[in-house]
Specification:
- Helix content is 25%, strand content 30%.
- It has ten helices and 23 strands.
- The chain has an eight-stranded mixed sheet, with no helix packed on it. Strands 10-11-12-17-14 form a five-stranded antiparallel sheet, with no helix packed on it. A four-stranded mixed sheet has the order 1-4-8-7.
- The two termini are 27 Å apart.
Length: 467
Amino acid sequence: MDQRSPLRALAPVAALLVLTASACSGSGEGSGPGGTPGAVGLRDPYFPGLGNGGYDVRHYDLALDYEPKSNLLRGTATITARATQDLSAFNLDLRGLDVDGVTVNGVPAEAGRAGDELTVRPREPVGDGSTFRTVVRYSGSPSSVTDPDGSEEGWLRTEDGAIALGEPQGSMAWFPGNHHPSDKAAYDITVTVPKGLTAVSNGELRSRRPAAGGARTAFAWHSPEPMSSYLATVGIGEYEVRTSRPAGGIPEFTAVDRTVAARSEKVRARIPEVLEWAQKNFGPYPFSSTGAIVERAEDVDYALETQTRPVYPAGAFNEYFLVHELAHQWYGNSVSPKQWKDVWLNEAFATYAEWLYDEDFRGVPAQERFEKEFEDDGNWAFPPSAPPRDDLLGAPVYGRGAMVLHKIRQAVGDDAFFGLLKSWAQKHRHGNASTEDFTAHAEERAGEDLTELWDVWLHGDGRPAKR
C-alpha cells in the first residue's frame, strides 16, 4: 500500500435463532459433545479480533448485487473451509449488514451477532479435518471503516458507484470471512449492477451477461491463486475498459474512470513494460492476470495493491506508484505477512523497487535515495519492525524499511542481494512469512551473521551515528 496521505447475495429468509450469550461471546464455555467453539479472533497484536480459529478457508464464492443510488448491497457468501479442530461453533468477521440466513453443509444453522463477529452453530458438529461449506445470505448498506490512523477503507461510495478497499480490516464491511492475512483462499466474485455500469474485481473476467431482464449486468471474476481477504476488491462505476495480452505475456485488464481516462493512458500503456522489468528482478510473476483500477482523485485518496489489479487515485497513477504497486504483487500479495506487525516486509520491498527503477531508468543510484531517506526525520519515529497501531503504515515502514534492504545489499554484494530478491519471493510464494522468517532467510543466503544490521536498522530506536 502507498502511504496513507492525501495521495496516499440473495433474498431474505426467516429470522435467525439467537445463540446463548456464551456462544455469542465465543468464550469456549458450555460446548457440547462433538467439539468446541473455534477461537474468536487470532490474537494478532494489532487487531486481535480479526480472523478466527478452528478452520482454514479454501474458497470464497461471493454473489453480490449492488444498487449505487440507495447503497443497497445484497450478498450470498459461500465459504468452503477445512476444520482444524472438532467444531461445535465458529465465527466469521462481518461489520454491519443484516444476516438473513446461514446454512452449514446445506442445513440451516443458528447464528448470532456480537459486534463484528458472526457466530455460527451448525446443527451437527464439524469434524476435525473435514471440509464444510457455509452459506451466508446478507444485505444492507455497507459502510466505510475508519482505521486507527484515521484513514478510510471498507466500502467507499464514489461519484458513479463504489470501490471496496480492505487494508487492514475493511473487507469485513462487504463480506463475511476469516479476515486475517494468514488465511488465504481462492475467490470467485460475481457482481450484478445496473446496466451501463461495470463491475471490476480481482483475477480474470469469466463472463459478462445480462440480468433482471436486461436492466442489470452480472460480471463474474475468478481468482485461482490464494489471496488474503484484505487484497480482494470490487470497483463499480463508469469505466473505460482496456484488455490486452502481449505475446507470451500476462493478460491485462484495466478499468479507468471515464472522466480521467485520457490523462491516464500514458501510464496505463507502461504496465507491460514495468511488469517485464519486475520479472527480471523479482522472478516469475505470481499471478495469472494483471491490470489496474483508476478512480477519480476525490473518490479515493490512496493507492492499494489489491491482488492482480491495484487501485489508484488518478493523481497517483504515475510511474513510481505503478512500480510500487506492481512490486507488491510479489511482496505483500504472493508473500503476505503472518501478522500485521510484519507489514514492513510488504512496503520495504515495494519502496526499494522504486529505488531500483530509478537506478535502471533514471540513472539515480540507490545510495542517493538512501541518503535522502536517512536525512528524513520521519523515518526515525519508530523501528520498521514495531510500528505503533495508530501508525501502522507510517514513514519508517516504507523509507527505513527500504534502508534495511539497502544495508543488506551493501553487506552481501549485488549478486547475492538480487538472488535474495528472487529466492525470498519464491520460497514463500502464495504463502505467509514473518520478520523472523526473513532475517533467517537473508542470513542463510548471505552465509553470515547479520545481527548487528538487524539491531541497528530494523529493530533499533533512533538514527544511527554512521550511515
